[in-house]
Amino acid sequence: MAMENNYYDGSRIFSRLAEYVGVEVDQANFVISQFVALALASLFRTVLHPSKTKSGTRHGFGLIFGLFIGYFCFGMQAIHLAGLPALCYIVIRTTSPDIMQRLVLAVALLYLSCIHLHRQIYDYASYTLDISGPLMIITQKVTSLAFCLHDGLTKNDSDLSKTQQFYAIKKIPSALEYFSYALQFPSLMAGPALYYKDYIDFIDGNNFLSAQSSSNQMATQNGNRMVFEPSAKRAVAKKVVMAMISVVIFVKFIPSYSIQGVKDDDFVQKSSLLYKLFYLHMATFLVRCKYYFAWLFADAICNNSGIGFNGFDNKGNPNWNKFSNISIIGFEFSTSLRSSIESWNIGTNIWLRRVVYDRVDKKYATVLTYGLSALWHGFYPGYYVTFANGALFTFAARNMRRTIRGYFTKTSELKLFYDIVTFATTKFVMAYITFTFVLLEFWAGLRLYVHMYMCLHILALLALFVVPRVIPRAQVSFASTATGTGTVTESFTNVLKTASRPISNNHHD
Length: 509
Fold this sequence. Notes:
Layout: H1 15-21, H2 25-41, H3 55-74, H4 79-94, H5 97-122, H6 132-154, H7 162-167, H8 175-183, H9 196-204, H10 207-214, E1 219-221, E2 224-226, H11 233-253, H12 265-270, H13 273-305, H14 328-332, H15 337-343, H16 346-355, H17 362-377, H18 381-404, H19 412-439, H20 442-451, H21 455-465, H22 467-470, H23 478-481, H24 490-496
Antiparallel strand pairs: 1-2
C-alpha cells in the first residue's frame, strides 16, 4: 500500500487511484500530469499552429498550463516556480550586461540551494516528488539565457565561438516571453532545458526552417523554399512505449535490487566482492530506468508539440532528437566513462559545458564543471562523493586510454577484445561510483567501499601514478585514432543499429 508523505503538497484528488495501483500519490500525479501535457502539446501543431495563432497566444498557452500543472503537482510550493525566475529577471533588467550573467547564476543557485536545504532538513533522503526538480530545469534556462544575453550585448562576434554566436541574444525578452520560456509546460517537469533562441524559433514557427536550413535539406519548388513539417507520431509513440517499458522494469525488479539493500549488514559483511559489484550494477540500472521513463516521456511531449525536429537522416526519415536528454544505447553500451557521461543527461552536460567548461581556464575546467554540477544537484553528501569519484576516474580512464589503447588497435581481433574489456569495465565502474549518488548518504557509502577494499579506487590511483611510469605509451596511427572513441563501438553498432539509431545532438557545436 502506498504511504502518505506529509511533506508533499500536491493534489490528493487521485489518492484512491494511487492506492489502488500501489504507488504514492506524488508519483501518480507526475504520470497523470505528463499524459495531460502530452495531449495538450498536440494543440501547438493544430489549433495553435503559428500560421493560425499569434506568438503571444502560444506563449500564454504554454505558460498558463505550465502554472496549472505546477500547482497540481506541488500545491503552494509552486510559488517557487515563479519566485526563482522572477528574481533572476529583476537582475537581468537592472544590472550591467557585463556582470549580469554571473549575478543570475549566483542568484539562481542560491535560491535553488535554499530549496535543496529545506528539502534535506524536512524530508531527508526521501524520493518524494518536490519542487526542486523543475527548479533545476528553470535554473538551467535562466542562466543560459543570461549568458546568451551577455554574449549578445557585450561582445563582438569575433570574440565568440560559433555556438556562442548562434545563441547570442541582443534584446532582453519581454516578461511574457521570459516567463513562458521558463515555465512552458512541455519541458517544465523533466526538461529538456532548450535554449531561448530554440524556444523562440518554436514559438514563431521557425524551428522546422532552422533544422532543414542548417543541414542543407531545404527543398525548393519553382524557386521558392519549401519547409516540411514532418509528423512526430512515430517518434512520440516509440518514446512513450520505451518510457512505459522502462517504468515496468523499474517497478518489477526494484524490490529485489533496492539501493537501500546496500546498507544491510548481511550484504555488506557477508556477500562476495563480485556479488557486491553485480548488485550495485543492477540497483543503479533500475534507478536509471526511472530516469529513462521521465526523460523519454518528456521528449515525447516536446516532439508532440513540434519541439526537437533535427532534420532528416540519409534515408529521408525525420529525426526528432535535437533536445533528447538521454541516449539509452549510447549509455548502456558505452566503452568509456567519457562517452557514458556524454550520453547521460545530455541537456545538463551541454549547459555545464557552455556555462562553465567553455568559459574558464582549461586547467580548472573539469574540476569547476564537476563542482557546479554537484552544487546544482544539492547538498546530499552522496552527490559529492559521486562527483569526486567521477573526476578521479575520468582522469584515470583518460590516462589508461592514452597509455595502452595503441597496443590493441593493430588488428580487429585485438580491438574487439579491447572493446569488450572496456565495455565491462565501464559498466562496473559506473555502478561503483554512482551508487552513492542514489543512496545519498556518506557513511553508508564509505562503509561499503571499505568492505569492497576500495578496490576500484586503488586501481584508479595505479592508473594515474604507476601505469604511465611502467608501461611505455603505445604509438597510435592516424588510422587507429580515426576509428573514434565512439559511444558504441563498431563491434556493438552492427548489432544495435537495428534496435535503435544513436541520438545525435545538432546544437551547432
